[in-house]
Amino acid sequence: EVQLQASGGGLVQTGGSLRLSCVASGFTFADYGVGWFRQAPGKEREGVSCIASRSDRRTVYVDSVKGRFTISIDNAKNTAYLQLNMLNPEDTAIYYCAARGLCSKYGLMDYEYWGQGTQVTVSS
User: Rounded to whole angstroms, what are the CA distances from 118 to 21, 30, 104?
Assistant: First the structure.
């Protein structure tokens, strides 16, 4: 059974940091890569960052998080991470991890496996 379990969200002040984790079972991030998405209240879901699958391994960030967020995978733990630094209120959203999709310079598309979200709230 495919499962993705995201955690690590919370309430932080502007300029603070969080590390989101996503534990996978039933498949490996090494094979399928990982994508992180977020959805703010009243807004559409957007792709934030991704690492492509084994044969590619490209890393992509949406412009608004470049230089602040870092995506990584620990293959031994089959866990993906999204380090969030220099957070601001515009980063407030529910963050989701996903796998088995297209990670390209044009964005994140067609992800098949999804975890539940973890709430990130940044106070001003």
Answer: 9, 23, 24
Beta-bridge mates of residue 7: 21
Q: Could you list the pLDDT tens digit for every one of the 124 residues in the chain?
A: 999 999 999 999 999 999 999 999 999 999 999 999 999 999 999 999 999 987 777 899 999 999 999 999 999 999 999 999 999 999 999 999 999 999 998 999 999 999 999 999 999 9
Contacts 24+ apart (CB under 8 A), 5-10: 5/115, 5/116, 6/95, 6/96, 6/97, 6/115, 6/116, 6/117, 6/118, 7/118, 8/118, 9/94, 9/95, 9/117, 9/118, 9/119, 9/120, 9/121, 10/119, 10/120, 10/121
